[in-house]
Amino acid sequence: MSKRVLILSGPTHEYFDPVRFIGNASSGKMGKALAEEALKRGMDVEFISGSVPDTNLPNVDAVSPPHPDRKENAVRTPRLHIQKIVSAEEMLAAAQEKFAAADVIIFAAAVADFQPLEKSAKKFPKTGSNITIELKPTPDIAATLCANKRKDQIAIGFALQTHDGEAKAREKLVAKNLDGIVLNTPATLGGSSGLFTWIDKLGLESWGSLNKSECAKRILTRVS
């Protein structure tokens, strides 16, 4: 039976009026690389993504390898379901529906940390004066879901840090009940590569500079 992997990818946008939002920077390229690598390994993929270009969504046509149980020129059709969301609350609701059925969960999304306390139905006019927008925390998606994680499920997170990276990543590993976490830096944002470090309860392994496809391979090897 194929393993089922749930991947959360891309940014969330928290709108404070109909056209303006608060959000974290994310291209979705890491999530795309993870999904495509999972498909290559024969996994079933549930992919929940914030707003990214379609080019940064998984490409099924690019990852259909020859099926080992069929003729040499036959291909296997990977099983992939993509669900697009906008906000952190929408991402959490979508993931809650898929979480119980997943064998592996990978939290690669850049979820905004705050959302407006109230959303205006009208666009704020630009008056030249300062405005004040009251914010509240968005739900902690990984912590919420993994609070009920079964022993047979594996959950992997990401920690993008500007300082004290290892210490902060280890705090998240414990607080969110993760099995592993990948530490990276803002230099990875929007790019095809970055500096990555794998951290789990047994220790740390510096992967150094990798393209995101190679990083995805190493992560999926850990959980396969």
Give an overview of the whole structure:
The protein is of the alpha/beta class and 224 residues long. The protein has one domain (4-116, 133-223): 3-Layer(aba) Sandwich (Rossmann fold), CATH 3.40.50.10300. Helix content is 24%, strand content 28%. It has five helices and twelve strands. It has helices spanning 29-40, 88-99, 141-146, 165-175, 212-223; strands at 4-9, 13-15, 21-23, 44-49, 80-84, 104-107, 114-116, 135-137, 154-160, 180-184, 193-200, 203-211. The strands form three sheets. The chain has an eight-stranded mixed beta sheet with strand order 5-4-1-6-9-10-11-12, sandwiched between helices. A two-stranded antiparallel sheet has the order 2-3. A two-stranded antiparallel ribbon has the order 7-8.
Q: Mind telling me which CATH architecture this is?
A: 3-Layer(aba) Sandwich
Q: Into how many domains do the coordinates divide?
A: 1
- Average pLDDT level: 90
Q: What characteristic shape results from the CA principal axes?
A: globular
H/I helix tally: 5
Number of strands: 12
Tell me about the biggest sheet? 8 strands, mixed
Strand proportion, as a percent range, falls in: 25-35%
CATH superfamily annotation: CoaB-like
By CATH, the topology is Rossmann fold
Q: Largest beta sheet: what is the strand line-up?
A: 5-4-1-6-9-10-11-12
Question: How far is it from the N-terminal to the C-terminal residue, by CA?
Answer: 13 Å
Task: Report Rg.
Answer: 18 Å
pLDDT < 50 stretches: 70-76
Class from secondary-structure proportions:
alpha/beta
Q: Which quaternary structure do these chains form?
A: single chain
CATH C-level: Alpha Beta
Report the order of strands and helices: EEEHEEHEEEHEHEEEH
- Helix percentage range: 10-25%
